[in-house]
Amino acid sequence: MDLRQACDRCHDKKLRCPRPPGSLCCSRCTKANVTCVFSPPTRPLRYPVNHNHNNGGISFDWPDLMVLEQQQQQQQQQGQQGQQTPSQVFETQPQTISDRLTAVLCGLDRMLQSVPSSLDMHHISRQYLRDYADNVGDTFDLQSILDGLLHHAQDLASLYPEATSASINKRATAPESDAACTIPDCIHQDRTSLHTTPLPKLDHALLNLLMACHIRLLDIMDTLAEHGQMCAFMVATLPPDYDPKFAVPEIRVGSFIAPTNTAATMLISVLLELQRALVGRVKDMSAVVAQARDHPGAAREARVISLQCEILQERAEATLGELTKFKDGLIMTRVLKIR
């Protein structure tokens, strides 16, 4: 199959694709911890246009950031564009909700593996504390991690409603189909012995995949929060003239480029908003699952999924609370600035 010379992400940004010979992934996608996809020239780009990686920075459209449903509509419109031959349609079938969730889970899992444990920061001689604070960010690419974390969190929040809706089996059972039949002398009356066991009312595989993405996102958030708390502790023990460095992606609002210190505050605020949105998504999923309890034969499986949703919601709320206290503490100690 004829593929582009540049991956979808580089092609979208009109950048040279730095793929080493013999490698399946270009170095730019590897650094950003995203899937590197080479599509046919006639294939619509997989990446939403709102994923902006100009010069390693992030251009946030603040109203759209809070209205995550617009991303879902853009993805659906993008998949409907273009005229294709039957062979092209077969080769470029649209991604299912499971495909997109799997891509999110794989990206988050790679990110988690690239973040070292914060336990190494707990054993440092005080005489080397300043040098360690200056070089602590060299152990991993924090900018790429934060960049990818924001995009994956946005993707997950936008996929939540679609996945929740798709997890409810809306197919009619054989008895329901027979009861609605109006054909005189229909053959269904002679095939009652052929009725098979219907599919479960709840799609366990899809729901567990959705929750796995959210759990992995919380794993990364909790790990980064541990690093942040330890860094804040080190700064508090250093002399007052110590100026902490913030390895955060560049944030643009129109033509305004936020200073590094302010960008760190804005970044934490955006992460908090995304966490609040995801807590709301879990509550919505719990409500949908609860409705299945009254369906014949679905009460037990609904109780199992409801318990999983309850555990996930408790952890998501705990992570949100810790992140909120972390931000307030940094502002109170003047490590971060509100303006």
From TrEMBL:
SUPFAM superfamilies the UniProt entry points to: Zn2/Cys6 DNA-binding domain
UniProt keywords, alphabetically: Nucleus
Cellular component terms per the entry's GO annotation: nucleus
InterPro entries (UniProt xref): Carb_Metab_Trans_Reg, Zn2-C6_fun-type_DNA-bd_sf, Zn2Cys6_DnaBD
SMART domains found in the cross-reference section: GAL4
Pfam families to which the protein is assigned, alphabetical: Zn_clus (PF00172)
The UniProt record lists the keyword Calcium: no
GO molecular function: DNA-binding transcription factor activity, RNA polymerase II-specific; zinc ion binding
Domain Zn(2)-C6 fungal-type: 6-38
Domain of life: Eukaryota
One Gene Ontology biological process: nitrogen catabolite activation of transcription from RNA polymerase II promoter
Region Disordered, residue ranges: 71-92
Ranges of biased composition (kind: Low complexity): 71-84
PANTHER family, alphabetized: GLUCOSE TRANSPORT TRANSCRIPTION REGULATOR RGT1-RELATED-RELATED, TRANSCRIPTIONAL ACTIVATOR PROTEIN DAL81
Record protein name field: Transcription factor aceii
Species of the source: Trichoderma arundinaceum
